[in-house]
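Just curious: can you write a single protein's sequence together with how it folds?
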Amino acid sequence: MTRSDAVVVVVGAGGMGCAVARRIGVGSTVVLADVSEQSLETAANALRADGYNVVSHAIDVSRKNSVAALAADAAARGSVTAVVHTAGVSPVQTTVDAILRVDLLGTALMLGAFGEVIGSGGAGVFIASMAGTMASLDLDFERRLATTPADQLLELPELSADAISEPGTAYAIAKRANQVRVQAASLSWGRRGARVNSLSPGVIATSMGEAELDGPHGELMRAMIAASSTGRVGTPDDIAGAVAFLVGADAGFITGTDLLVDGGVIAALRNPAS
């Protein structure tokens, strides 16, 4: 049963975010946030037209004050029962610096801010990527990605302009950082009686996914999809279903882990002869 004062926060008003809001937002106040005010209002109005109680909130996840304002707004509206962070950029869309600020720092700031306001019994899901699962990083580097204070995170030497030359590398590092940082944050979330997990999608039929398929690595991505056991691109509803499980009561003993939702791509890559 949904609490009358329940607040569900969804960051990212794209395909995944809207599917998630529709799946878990019934009967709650949905605080929908995005950096693009035009996209935000279009998505919020569509949800309102379908009967959802939606509050729109413009946000820049790479700015601490902006993230803190979102957390304060959500907490003032009731008990924050779910936080789902879907916002991000991909290698074909932008630069190394933007990926590190949005995908890496943005997640760290969201984890910290909502770890201070999430309600007891609440749950968070932070979208990472199968690219993070594929990344092979030094264990000490992973530890520092997981535990370095957010305001010092981009100062790590491995994240300098000299160390990362192209967006694909930045993306893989950022998404692996999302996975390990969520794991570390589950301890502080747990002290509030809340859970938090990451979810790593494969190729999903969103505008970002389509851009990647049309990009320089599109042929390789199509080959990976073809080799997978499902043989298809994922849908936003596939992700929304997994999110609904992770924030729901059936996942009450699941926290600090990553759920890979890739249609079997990683399994195929690791077992090419099967």
